[in-house]
Amino acid sequence: MVEQRLQKILAAAGFGARRKCEMIIAQGRVKVNGALITELGTKADPANDIIEVDGIAIHQQRKVYIMLNKPAGCITTVNDPRGRKTVMEYLADVPERVFPVGRLDQDTEGLLLFTNDGEFCDRITHPRFKVFKTYDAWITGIPAEEQLRQLREGVPLGDTVSAPAEARLLQEEELELSYKGKKKNTLRRTPCSMLEIRIQEGRKRQVKRMIKAIGFRVISLKRTKVGNLELGDLPTGKYRYLDKKEIELIFSE
Fold first, then answer.
1. In total, how many domains does the chain have?
2. Hey, which residues does 186 pair with through a beta bridge?
3. Residue 51 contacts residue 57 (beta carbons within 8 Å)
4. Distance between CA atoms of residues 129 and 62, nearest Å
């Protein structure tokens, strides 16, 4: 008999990262051989014990790792009580039960990972692993070097300060943007720029808040890299499985 902690077994079965699985146990949703388990650290044998979540027996799945080029307009959640479009609709033909690794805002595009491996999720999302996320941000205006320096040193975010980021100017261009007038919206050619920003933190709407802190507004935002994983030319709304080398890159970071 090979016993493992229950939260590890649930994570391997696709119920989320270990911290989420600990919540499931603490909420009294797990039984082992008919006995209700709420104590964290309880062990079980996934090969021989009957483990149930919400009355349904779980089973071990093969571990899968997926990259989606998330479109704007959908939310990063497994399901939504309000009936909004979720990222899971783009993975409808994936047979395994997977969950998103971290999140992207509804209007943010780009690289979003999915897995049923709780350890992989922790590797990406837990602050102690310091995995960088890289974004391309189109913003109004063209920041000066001093403003880029502020991003690199950290900017105020409410009652805290962001960790130092890597930031560089990639492109400058005049774009037609819509502005609200008294009677109707008007289009106006506006100087804009694209920044590449690399951060380790994952605070809510962090990149947009950082850009706002130096006096600009984000027009569009796209995540292009997570650690050493690159979005590349994966089309918007499409997904692919990570290969063995890419998975090893994450676990070696």
1. 3
2. 179
3. yes
4. 24
Confidence at 150, pLDDT banded by 50, 70, 90: very high
122 and 184: one domain?
A: no
Give the whole-angstrom CA distance, residue 17 versus residue 109.
23
H or E stretch covering 194: strand 185-199
Classified as helix, coil or strand, 211 is helix
Indicate whether 211 and 235 sit together in one domain.
Answer: no
Domain match, 158 and 202 both: yes
Q: Are residues 51 and 27 in the same domain?
A: yes
Q: Is 207 helix (H, G, I), strand (E, B) or coil?
A: helix
Please answer whether residues 52 and 45 qualify as being in contact, where contact means their C-beta atoms are separated by less than 8 angstroms: no
Query: By three-state DSSP, how is residue 161 classified?
Result: strand
Whether 105 is catalytic is yes
CATH of the domain at 33: 3.10.290.10
pLDDT per position as a tens digit, 4-40: 899 888 887 878 888 889 999 999 999 999 899 999 9
Q: How many whole angstroms separate alpha carbon 193 and alpha carbon 245?
A: 35
The reply to whether 69 and 112 lie within a common domain is yes
Containing domain of residue 14, as a range?
Answer: 4-57
The C-alpha atoms of residue 230 and residue 52 are separated, in whole angstroms, by 37
Q: What's the pLDDT tens digit per position in 32-77?
A: 998 999 999 899 988 778 899 999 888 767 789 999 999 999 999 9
Q: In whole angstroms, how far apart are CA 78 and each of 7, 74, 99, 112, 151?
A: 19, 11, 6, 13, 33
Distance CA 135, CA 205 (A): 12
Name the active-site residue from 45, 49, 105, 122.
Answer: 105
Q: What CATH number should be reported for the domain holding residue 71?
A: 3.30.70.580
Looking at the structure, tell me whether residues 109 and 141 fall in a common domain. Answer: no
